[in-house]
Amino acid sequence: MILQLKSLLFSALLFGSLLMPAMAQTLQPDDATRTLRWVSPSLVEVTITSHEITQKGFYLLRNQTIVRHGSWTLWTNGEKTMAASYDKGELQWIEHPNGKQYTAADIKQQRGKNPTPYLIVD
After folding, report:
1. Which end of the chain is more exposed for a tag (fewer CB within 10 A), N or C?
2. Do the domain assignments include residue 122?
């Protein structure tokens, strides 16, 4: 059972990280290096590197799904660009490059003030 879950997690991280935005950066399969390190049976530390961009964070295996958990940090050319904290998949806060932190409630409030326009395609 654990081996199947590890295999599922590895496959999802390997292919899913290509589809998930990496803190506003989308990584292409031919230029990204992924390193996985099991911290516990349900927690994986992930490092994704693509040229000058590095992202590091944790995935939690919970009820056979994979969610971001703990600290996530994005570096560009070795300098910290963004940081965020997740609790079992729920964003808690995000830190702007200027050092200011915004909570999930702050972000939700701002989105309510300025709804994102979108295009409906048939």
Report:
1. C
2. no
pLDDT tens-digit series, residues 38-76? 999 999 999 999 889 999 999 999 888 999 999 999 999
14-38 residue pLDDT tens: 444 433 443 344 445 567 888 999 9
In a domain, 38, yes or no: yes
Strand segments, DSSP code E, in the chain are 33-40, 43-50, 53-62, 65-68, 70-76, 79-87, 90-95, 101-103
pLDDT of residue 64: 86
Structural domain boundaries enclosing 38 = 2-113
CB 52 within 8 A of CB 61: no
